[in-house]
Queue: 2 jobs
Job 1
Amino acid sequence: MNGELLINVTPSETRVALIENGVLQEVHVEREARRGLVGNIYLGKVIRVLPGMQAAFVDINLDKAAFLHASDINSTLITNEEKTSEQVPDIRSLVHEGQHIVVQVVKDPLGTKGARLTTDITVAARYLVLMPNASHAGISQRIEEASERARLKDIITPYCDENQGFIVRTAAEGVGEDELKHDAEFLRRVWSKVLERKKRKQTKVALYQDLSLAFRVLRDFVGISLERIRIDSKLTFDQLSEFTKEFVPELTAVMEYYPGERPIFDLFDVENEIQRALHRKITLKSGGSLIIDQTEAMTTIDINTGAFVGHRNLEETIFNTNIEATQAIARQLRLRNLGGIIIVDFIDMSDADHKRRVLHSLEAAMLKDKVKFSISGFSALGLVEMTRKRTRESLEHILCSECDVCSGRGNLKTVETVCYEILREIVRVNRAYDTDKFIVYASTSVSESLVNDEFHNLAELEVFIGKQIKVQTETMYNQEQFDVVMM
C-alpha cells in the first residue's frame, strides 16, 4: 500500500490528507481557534457531583463543564476495600465539590456534550507512553513476538519507579536502547513541567497541551508506509524537519516542501473529495448508492441498487452491490470520521453464504482503519450493527453548521404548505382583532404562488372575511418565513 501525506497550512487552519494508492482516505482539520482538546491535561475544579449518574462535572475553563465518570477515576484514589469489589465505587467517595483534580481530556466536546475526562493521565512520545499514576512497564499487544516483548520490557523497566511507568508503543518494535532511553527522558521532563505548573495552581490554561495537528500525524501514523510527505508552508516544513530528525528520523527523507502554484489539495482531487464527503448520497461505480444519515444518537447507512441490474439474476445483483458497498462504507467512515453506533442496512439477501461473505468483506475493509471498531453479525431485521471509537468531531460537524432555514430537519415546507399556513393565519388574526385590511410579507416563491396558483383561494378568503388582502415580496425571507400585518 502506497501512502502519501499532504499538509496544507494557513495561519488560521491546518489540514492533512492521507492518500492511499492515489485515493483520499482520511482528512484531518484543525483550526487555530478551535484546536482539539484530546490529550490536554488540566487542573480542574469539581463543580457538581451526580451520584445518580456516578459522575461529576469538572470546570476546566471551557464553555461547557467537562464530564468525569467514576470508572474513569484512577485506581490510586480508590481504597483497598473498594478495590476488592467488582463494582465501581460511589462517586462521592472519590471526589467532592470544590476539589481541585488533575484530569486529561479523552473525548472532545461533541454537540451539546462537554469534554470527557479521565484521571488516568498518559503522555505520548514516538516510542513510549508515560503513565504518571502507574509503576509498571507494559508492551503493546501488537508486538507479538515473545523475545521482542521481553527485550523491550528489559530495556524500559529500569526507567519505571513507584511514581511512573511506561507503555511501549508498536513503533518501538526493533528499536534500539538509545532511542527508548531518549523518549523516556523526554517524557520525564515533560511531566516535571506539568507538576511545576500544578504547584502554581495553573487553572486558566492547560498544564500540558498535545502537539498541533501537523506534528501529531507524524507521530501517530505509525505502521503506514509513507512514500512522500508534502508540506506547502516553508515555516512548517522547517519545523517538521527538526521534529522528525529528533523523534521520527525515518520520515525525514520522504518530507518535501511543496512550492507549486497549484494548491496542494488540488492534487489527487482532495478538495472535491471533501465536498463529496459532505453529501448525503454516495454513488457507487456500479450505479448503486449509499445514503448516509448522521444523527446525534447514531449513523445509519442504507444501500440501494439504483441502476445496477446485473447480468444473471437479482440475487447476484444484490450480492455484488453489497460487496462493493462494504469498501465504500469503510472508506466513508474514515473519511468522514464517523463514530459511535453505526447501523448498516444492506440490501436483503436470502443466501446465508452471501451474508457471510458480505460481513467478511466489511471486516476486511475496516482493517485498514487505525480507529478501534467492532462489527456484529446480521440482526433478525437484516441490519448490521457496528461501533467505531469516537474521540473527535466528524468532518461534517467541523465544516458545517445547522441550517438556519430548516433547523437541521434536512427538508423545507413546500410552497403550497406555507401558502395554506398564511391563509389560516389571516383567518385566526381576523377573528382575534378588528382591522380593515391585511398585508402578507413572504418570500419570492410563496408570494408568487399566492397571486398565481392560489389566486382563487386568496380571492375567496377576501370575500369570506370581507377585507382586502395584499401580498408583498420580501426577497430576504426564506421559503418558510412570512408575516401577516394588520392595517
Job 2
Amino acid sequence: MIPRLMSTQHPDNVYIPFFASSPVMGGEDEVTEAFYAFNVLGMGEQMWDFEGKEVDEFVVKKLFERHGHFFRRRRLGREFRLTPRVPNPSVEKAEAKLLLETLETIPRSADYARIFYSEEAAPIFEVILPMATSPVELNRVYELYRRYIAGKQYKRVYDIKLHEWIGEFYPKEISVIPLFETKEAILGAAAVVAEYLKGKEFEYQRVFLARSDPALNYGLISAVLYDKKALFDLQVLEEETGVEVYPIVGVGGAPFRGHFTPENVDAVMDEYPSAQTYTVQSSFKYDWPTKEVMKAVERVKSRRRGRADPVPEEVFSLLKKYEERYSRELKALAPYIREIAKYVPSRRRRKLHIGLFGYSREVNGSALPRAIKFTASLYSIGIPPELLGLSALSERELDEISDHYLGLYRDIEFAFRYFNPSVVEKFPFLGPLPEMAKSYERDEGHGEITSAILSGQPNESLVVEAAGIRGFLG
C-alpha cells in the first residue's frame, strides 16, 4: 500500500505541539510525533530526516518498546512506513559519511522487527535522496546498500563469515526515491528515472517533486507549472515502461509552498491529481483543530489518484519575464529578508546546510534563509512572496496561466489579504502591487503588525502573532 500522506518534520507551525518538551523539538519529541501521526492523525508515512537534522537513529526500537500493542496490530513497514531522508554526498560534503551511517540503521531496524514480530520483517526499505540530478546518484545509493551494507555479510572476518557471526542483513536491497528540487532536475525527472529503472525489476518507483525550494528559486507560478510538467512526463513514463510511478509532491501550508491546509486539501488534489502522496508539514498538524485535521486526512485517503494534464509550451514562454522580475525584486529584498529571519523562531534542531538555494545561496554576497524562514520573513513585512514577479504578467497572461494553474487566483487572493500597501514607501519597485490589491480584502490586524515590523520594531512575538492570524509560520 503506497501512502497517500507523508508526515514530515519541517517546522512551519506557529504553535508548539502538546507533547513537545520545549519550543525546539528534539529527537525524543519526534519519536512521539511519529506515533501521533500514525495513531491519532492516520498518516500512512513518516519521513525521518537524517539530512540536516539531528534525529534519533533508534526510532524503530523506541516505537516498538513504547507502543508495542499498537504496532503488533498494525505493522510498521506494511500498514505504516518510516522513510529516511539521507544526505546527498554529491552536494553535502560535510554530511557525506552520514549516508553510510543512515544506511547501516536499516538492517539493524530489521533485526528489531524480526524479534518483535517473530519473523523476517523490514520496517524501512526506502530512502529519499535530496537534490537528485542524475541516475548515477541514485544508482550509487542503490548499489552502496546492496553491495556494501547488505552485501558485506558474505565477507569473511578472520575465521568466519560476517552473517554467521552477527546475523543476516535484511533487506537485501532498498528503493531510492529521488527528490528533484531545481528547475532542470524537475523538468528532467522522467528521463532520470527512466535511466535508473534500466536493468531493475521494480514493481513500482516513487518520485519526489519539491515545491518550496523551486518557488523560492523561480517564483510561485514557475514552481507550480514545472511540477505539473514533471507529473505529466512521469505519467507518460509509467505508460511506456509498465512500471507504476507514484509521485510525491512536497507541499507546505503557505500558497507559496503548496497551500496544503486542512481546508484546502481538495483544491490541492485537484491541482496535482496524479500525485499519490502529499507531504503533511507541522502547520497542517498543529495549527488547526485536531478534528479538522483528521477529517482532512480522511478526505485525502479516500480519494483515488487521477491523471495529469499536459501544460502547453506557450505557457512556459511566459515564465522568462516573470522569473526575471521575480529575481530582481528578490535581490532588492534580500537584506530585509535576512534581517527579519533572525526573529523567526526555530521549531526543530537543525544542522548547518550547504548547497542549493533552498539551503544556502549567495545573493549580493550573502545567503538567504531556508524556505520556511524566507516565507515567514516576507509575510512579516507585508510582502507575501506569492506576489513577487506578478506585475510582469498582464491580465490576459494570468488568465492563460490559470487554465493550467487552477488555484492561481485563489492563491493570489490569499496573498493579497496579507499585503501591506505601505511597503511601497520603502520598496518603490513594488509600485504596481497596491493598485492590484484594491480588488482584494485585506486583514487589518495583520497589516498593523507588519507596519510595526516595517517601522523598525521587529521582534519574535510580532512575527509569531502575525503567523497566528494567517495560520502558519512559513
